[in-house]
Structure to design on (133 residues):
């Protein structure tokens, strides 16, 4: 069996800090913890396989930060797990200043989670640069 092919070219950022979820997805009236997040998309645990043939509206919230990122995304991958699975989604569209807000949130999250001191420029380079894993 072949390993799943990586679709994202930007670095995926794990969304947990000190064991606590920091980013949340609101979709169809439900709130779910994001597993990872990048400027291109996200992964989220779901109880049933989502439809992949059409884009859906979403809202992303960052714990402790004002505002939200809104847009449309589409499921591009689903990995089945006991009790549900992990849906990999790509952004189809980010509304208003969503891309800028998301980049800022992710850079701040990278700084907060880093074991070593990071400058904002370094964190931004990690978030906006190519995947390093």
């Amino acid at each position: 069996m072949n390993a799943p092919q990586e679709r994202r070219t930007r670095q995926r950022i794990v969304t947990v800090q000190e064991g606590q979820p920091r980013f949340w997805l609101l979709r169809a009236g439900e709130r779910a913890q994001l597993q990872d997040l990048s400027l291109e998309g996200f992964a989220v645990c779901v109880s049933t396989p989502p439809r992949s043939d059409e884009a859906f509206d979403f809202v992303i919230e960052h714990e402790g930060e004002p505002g939200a990122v809104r847009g449309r995304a589409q499921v591009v991958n689903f990995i089945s797990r006991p009790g549900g699975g992990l849906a990999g989604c790509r952004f189809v569209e980010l509304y208003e200043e969503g891309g800028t807000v998301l980049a800022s949130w992710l850079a701040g999250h990278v700084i907060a989670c880093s074991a070593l001191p990071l400058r904002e420029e370094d964190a931004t380079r990690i978030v906006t640069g190519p995947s390093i894993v």
